[in-house]
Every structure is written in structure tokens, then in C-alpha cells.
Specification:
Largest sheet: 8 strands, mixed
Strand content: 5-15%
CATH topology of the largest domain: UDP-N-acetylmuramoyl-L-alanine:D-glutamate ligase
Distance between the termini: 35 Å
CATH architecture of the largest domain: 3-Layer(aba) Sandwich
Radius of gyration: 22 Å
Number of domains: 2
Catalytic activity: (6S)-5,6,7,8-tetrahydrofolyl-(gamma-L-Glu)(n) + L-glutamate + ATP = (6S)-5,6,7,8-tetrahydrofolyl-(gamma-L-Glu)(n+1) + ADP + phosphate + H(+)
Enzyme class: ligase
Protein name: tetrahydrofolate synthase
CATH superfamily of the largest domain: Mur-like, catalytic domain
GO molecular function: ATP binding; metal ion binding; tetrahydrofolylpolyglutamate synthase activity
Organism: Pseudogymnoascus verrucosus
Number of strands: 14
Length: 458
């Protein structure tokens, strides 16, 4: 058996540039032939009793809430005994993507199962069968791990889309769910909200109950159209008023929405698989207490220094994250005095980063919160350039983009002091240097890679 390090090297070697349009992003096309090579039939995949979740914002949190509710029920009743959870991307190490009972699989387990499938899959593409790429390989590994480890339920988060996603190969999942939909990954999924909704609704399966949070009218209409086409009973889930109001995990409004959807999905799964049992109030409270999703609405306090981190990276998520930050820092504000307020921002993608900065500024302005210092940085973590083997981050230092971001913010607030730093480590150090005896309040957002790097240092 090869080592964990060798498994990561081989996996990273399967990365490829993003596809140019949705028709080329058919990550599910060869999944069934590859699964057949691994010895898995439709019946084997159906035995995972899967829950499949798509969406633009909050699908990872929703999956975590589902797994947490089912685990709380299992701790009390003994079923489900093993909960498999597949999410992406990872925050600190790649094994976070494949969990059993909320624990990332070990390095040994990752390596052993990886090489079990690596030896059976094609190494070169043929005219009839391609080779699995990075995300496809990870999805295959998750299916393999969950089957081999005998999970009672597999909770799967899609990567980006839905219809053509590599996770969308289970013919009869128990439940499907869709979180909030917005304009994201437009280059891959389509340049209007209906096209994106159509892709996300591609996880609907005939005879399988589907749930969605409340959506804007055009998304709702597209979901209903796709549900009717597939013969799916689709229900829209509003905020659950019975959820506890004092739970720290539910303070951000988006998390209350995600939790409401997760609770409905968990109840439906239990109705199917354990009809004589149901989630109790104690299960729900326990599930919420067990909920942990680093880098999402996360606060770290070190003396008077407060770090607020959220990996929001699109126009749908960033206003919610900025509002959460504003409400958190003004909740116990003492009169008119407060420590320096700092924004650390980094974003490099095909999204319009200037528009993202503008969405942050508008949300903060609505809450009458002003940023005194803006620190622009990159995805590179340390000054010495060293990074974990799990990260595989390219050097993304683009001073010209930082300059554009600086110019954009100056138009929004000319009084803000703006700093441009080469690495995340230097950005955090800059914030510490700005700190006064009253401390500081730092909002870190704009990219999963930024928040991941900041958390590894903090």
C-alpha cells in the first residue's frame, strides 16, 4: 500500500483547469462505469440510504446539521449507528471531506482505500472511457469508503452544480434538498438564475422526496417545473419557529434557514428508515450543540482581540457574513468607543471582486459600521512559502488585482487606511500591529482559501 503523501500527490496530479461551459462540465458521465469497475451496482449505491444536497449558499452547513441531528438520534437510540458525510472543499486537510460520525477518516484509512480504487481505475483515457479527475476521484473514494465502512446513511454535498455533478449517480436517494440559490459559478452553470436553478434541481429523482428553502420566484418556478418533470414531490421549507433562540450556532440568520431545512430532511429520512422513531427535542438541542463547521460564522477571541471569519465568496453570501460581523461587534458596544475595525480580504476567481467588496461595504453601511483599515492579501499563507501537502495552492500573488481592489474601496470610503500584504501571515501581523490597548475587531472574508490559511495560523 502506498503512503498518505503518495495518495495526495497522485490525487493532486488529477487537477485540471475549469471547463468553459456547462455542457463540458459533465462530471457524472463516467461515474457509473468507474463504479462498475470498483464492483458497485445500483443496489450497492442505493444501500447507502443517501441524502443529497445541492445549492449555492449553505449546502455544507445544511449537510453538517443533518449529520449532527442523525448522530444525536443515533447516540440516543442506536440508529443510525454510522453516518457518512461527504463535503467540499476542505478547510485544513483533505480528509475533512470524508467523515464518519463527524470524524475525518484517518490518514491510514484514506491511503488504504485510495489505493484500493486507484489500482482498479483507468490510468489513461480511451475513446469510450475517460480517467477520473480530482473531484470525480474524491467522490469515488467517498462512495468506496462509505460502502466498505458500512455506514447506515451517506450525506453527500454536491461540488458546484447538480445535474452533472460527480455525486449525482445514486439512482434512488432517500431525500434530496436544495439550499439558497444565487448567481454563482455562472461560467459553468449558466448566466441566468433559471439556468443555475435548473442545474441544481438536477439532483431531483423520481419517487424521492425533495425539499428546498424558500427561493426567489424565478427559482421557485424552475424548481416546480423540474419537480413536475421528474415526478417529484417538492416541498418548500420556511424557518422553523421551534428552533432554540439562544443557540450560538443559530445566531446568523442563514444558519437558522439551513438548520430548518436540515431538520425537515432528517425527519423525512427517519420517517423512511426508522418509522417507529423520531427526533426528540433533546436530539435537536444535542444536534445543534454538536454542530461545528470551521470558517463559517466563526469567532476567535484572544484577550481584547476579536477575529471574525467567514469564507463567504459570492454576492449572495457576503452580505450575510458582513451583517453577522456588524451585529456581533455592536451587540455589546460601550457608548461611542470601540477598537479599530479591520477588514482582511482576498479573492481571485472569475467573479468580480470589486462587486464583492461593494456588497460588503453596503451591508456594513446599513448597520452603520465603518472599516478603518482594509488589508488586502493573497492565498499564500506563510512568508517562507511552506504549506501543507493537503493545500496544493498555486502562487496567487497578483498586485495589479490588489490595486484594483484598493481603488474600488477608496471610492466607497476614502478615509479607510489600505494595506497590501504579500501573505496571509503578514496580513494577520499587520492587523496585530494596528491593534490598540482596546484591542481590535477583524473581519476575515472573501475566500475559502483566505479563511483556511488564517485559521491555520490563528
Amino acid at each position: 500500500m502506498g503512503s498518505y503523501e503518495e495518495a495526495i500527490r497522485l490525487l493532486n496530479g488529477r487537477r485540471e483547469p475549469p471547463k468553459a461551459n456547462p455542457d463540458e462540465m459533465r462530471g457524472s458521465d463516467d461515474m457509473l462505469p468507474w463504479l462498475r469497475l470498483l464492483g458497485y451496482s445500483d443496489e450497492t449505491l442505493n444501500s447507502l440510504n443517501a441524502i443529497h444536497v445541492a445549492g449555492t449558499k449553505g449546502k455544507g452547513s445544511t449537510c453538517i446539521f443533518i449529520a449532527s441531528f442523525l448522530r444525536a438520534h443515533g447516540q440516543r437510540c442506536g440508529y443510525p449507528r454510522k453516518i457518512g458525510l461527504y463535503t467540499s472543499p476542505h478547510m485544513n486537510h483533505i480528509r475533512e471531506r470524508i467523515r464518519i460520525n463527524d470524524e475525518p477518516i484517518s490518514k491510514d484509512l484514506f491511503a488504504s482505500h485510495f489505493f484500493e480504487i486507484w489500482e482498479k481505475l483507468p490510468r489513461e483515457a480511451t475513446r469510450t472511457l475517460d480517467i477520473p479527475r480530482y473531484l470525480q476521484l474524491l467522490a469515488l473514494l467517498a462512495f468506496h469508503v462509505f460502502v466498505k465502512e458500512g455506514v447506515d446513511v451517506g450525506v453527500f454535498e454536491t461540488h458546484a452544480g447538480g445535474k452533472y455533478d460527480a455525486t449525482n449517480v445514486i439512482k434512488t436517494p432517500c431525500v434530496t434538498a436544495v439550499t439558497s440559490i444565487g448567481m454563482d459559478h455562472a461560467r459553468l452553470l449558466g448566466h441566468d438564475i433559471q439556468a443555475i436553478a435548473r442545474h441544481k434541481a438536477g439532483i431531483f429523482k423520481s419517487g424521492c422526496p425533495a425539499f428546498s428553502v424558500l427561493q426567489e420566484p424565478m427559482v421557485t418556478a424552475e424548481f416546480e417545473k423540474q419537480a413536475m418533470k421528474e415526478g417529484v414531490l417538492l416541498k418548500f421549507v420556511d424557518l422553523d419557529e421551534t428552533l432554540p433562540t439562544d443557540a450560538a450556532a443559530l445566531k446568523p440568520v442563514p444558519q437558522r434557514i439551513n438548520c430548518s431545512l436540515a431538520l425537515t430532511v432528517s425527519r423525512e429520512w427517519l420517517r423512511q428508515k426508522a418509522p417507529d422513531k423520531e427526533l426528540t427535542t433533546e436530539d435537536i438541542i444535542c444536534g445543534i450543540k454538536q454542530f461545528s463547521w470551521p470558517g463559517r460564522f466563526q469567532q476567535i477571541t484572544d484577550g481584547r482581540c476579536q477575529w471574525f471569519l467567514d469564507c463567504a465568496h459570492n454576492e449572495l453570501s457576503l452580505p450575510y457574513a458582513a451583517t453577522w460581523f456588524a451585529e456581533a461587534i455592536t451587540e455589546n458596544q460601550d457608548g461611542c468607543t470601540y477598537p479599530p475595525r479591520i477588514l482582511i480580504f482576498s479573492h481571485f476567481s472569475d467573479r468580480d471582486g470589486q462587486t464583492l467588496l461593494n456588497s460588503i461595504a453596503k451591508a456594513l453601511e446599513t448597520r452603520q459600521v465603518r472599516i478603518q483599515h482594509l488589508i488586502l492579501t493573497t492565498y499564500d499563507i506563510r512568508r517562507d512559502g511552506q504549506a501543507s501537502i493537503d493545500r496544493n495552492m498555486m502562487n496567487r500573488y497578483k498586485p495589479e488585482i490588489q490595486s484594483l481592489y484598493a481603488q474600488a474601496w477608496r471610492l466607497l470610503d476614502p478615509a479607510t487606511k489600505i494595506w497590501e500584504e504579500r501573505t496571509i501571515e503578514e496580513a494577520l501581523d499587520r492587523a496585530r500591529n494596528i491593534s490598540t490597548r482596546d484591542g481590535m475587531q477583524v473581519f476575515v472574508t472573501g475566500s475559502i482559501k483566505l479563511v483556511s490559511g488564517a485559521l491555520s495560523l490563528l
